[in-house]
């Protein structure tokens, strides 16, 4: 297929892993396609777009906008429509059936509900962002044109000790503190309550926990920290764009999600040699190997036990995490490799 005109559609456009990927794709597709259109509401990610990307600011979640979006696709002779998040499935399916556009859905997540209903709305082309996601869905999506392309993320630079100390000092963190980092939207999916309850079992440990992210549960989580006597142990940082700084100053990344696809932050953390503790959900095991600890998501004490184990054996986990950075296995998760694989896929159609 000739790479002429492509459109990307996503229902949310604030901070988030999938939004970050949509921005990356749009900004880089301008080098390969004659025209790049992005259908998304106005949001914090809007300012990150290349000025060559035509951003159609529209409420994708409002189904009344379906005819308008299809008209823009038709008028601009779009040949490929790339969808992110399941809310885009009706747009993808109708663009394929009515306008004969090549529609592609990106399965970035392993969802717990409505999978069969969404199958009925899926376009012909499905891209899984890990082999684990593919294994989860392949029996449901027999007969579809399935393709697995590993997700790619940012590879950051490892900071020297002096810079790390300076950044910790800016946050009022003593050098002798064990720094736990949690990065993600403050929502039910990310399950920060589990993290906070786990920290209560570690009150006598010399740690500080940084929770970076915004979301609807912030007030409730702050109250939970207060009720459990962790005010001196937990810092809510809000939404942050300096992820490179945060993963460098931390001693461990701890993620307690109920369900996941393939979090960008795992790649970002691993790229600087940061050990990871995560619930064993989604594609976590693709990155969390000798460099960290996977925890049964149903275990009540799993996270606190894992943090204790990490602290007790930290030199070994850190050594493993640093070695993982330079492995040929990990290098395949760079965002530029992902981009190249997408371009090759579209050329092959």
From TrEMBL:
Q: Which residues form the Glycosyl transferase family domain?
A: 167-317
An annotated Gene Ontology molecular function: glycosyltransferase activity
Report the InterPro entries cross-referenced here: Glyco_trans_1
State the superkingdom: Bacteria
Q: Which UniProt keywords apply?
A: Transferase
**Keyword match Transferase:** yes
Return the protein name.
Glycosyl transferase family 1
- Which source organism? Mucilaginibacter oryzae
Taxonomic lineage from the root: Bacteria, Pseudomonadati, Bacteroidota, Sphingobacteriia, Sphingobacteriales
């Amino acid at each position: 297929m000739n790479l002429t005109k492509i459109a990307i559609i996503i229902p949310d456009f604030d901070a988030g892993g999938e939004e970050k990927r949509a921005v990356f794709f749009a900004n880089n597709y301008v080098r390969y396609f004659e025209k790049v259109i992005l259908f998304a509401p106005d949001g914090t990610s809007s300012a990150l777009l290349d000025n060559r990307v035509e951003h159609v600011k529209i409420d994708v979640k409002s189904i009344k906008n379906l005819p308008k979006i299809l008209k823009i696709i038709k008028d601009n002779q779009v040949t490929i429509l790339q969808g992110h998040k399941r809310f885009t499935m009706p747009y993808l399916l109708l663009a394929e059936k009515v306008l004969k556009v090549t529609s592609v859905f990106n399965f970035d997540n392993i969802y717990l509900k409505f999978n069969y209903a969404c199958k009925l709305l899926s376009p012909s082309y499905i891209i899984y962002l890990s082999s684990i996601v593919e294994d989860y869905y392949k029996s449901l999506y027999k007969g579809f044109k399935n393709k697995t392309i590993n997700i790619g993320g940012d590879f950051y630079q490892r900071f020297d000790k002096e810079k790390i100390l300076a950044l910790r000092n800016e946050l009022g963190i003593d050098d002798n503190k064990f720094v736990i980092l949690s990065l993600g939207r403050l929502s039910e999916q990310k399950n920060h309550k589990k993290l906070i309850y786990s920290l209560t079992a570690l009150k006598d440990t010399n740690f500080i926990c940084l929770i970076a992210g915004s979301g609807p549960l912030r007030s409730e989580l702050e109250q939970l920290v207060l009720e459990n006597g962790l005010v001196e142990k937990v810092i809510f940082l809000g939404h942050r764009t300096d992820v490179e700084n945060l993963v460098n100053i931390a001693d461990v990344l701890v993620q307690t999600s109920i369900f996941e696809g393939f979090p960008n932050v795992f790649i970002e953390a691993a790229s600087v040699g940061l050990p990871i503790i995560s619930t064993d959900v989604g594609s976590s095991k693709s990155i969390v190997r000798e460099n960290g600890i996977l925890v049964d998501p149903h275990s009540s004490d799993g996270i606190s036990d894992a943090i204790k184990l990490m602290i007790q054996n930290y030199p070994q986990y850190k050594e493993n995490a640093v070695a993982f950075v330079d492995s040929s296995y990990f290098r395949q998760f760079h965002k530029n490799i992902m981009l190249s694989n997408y371009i090759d896929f579209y050329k092959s159609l």
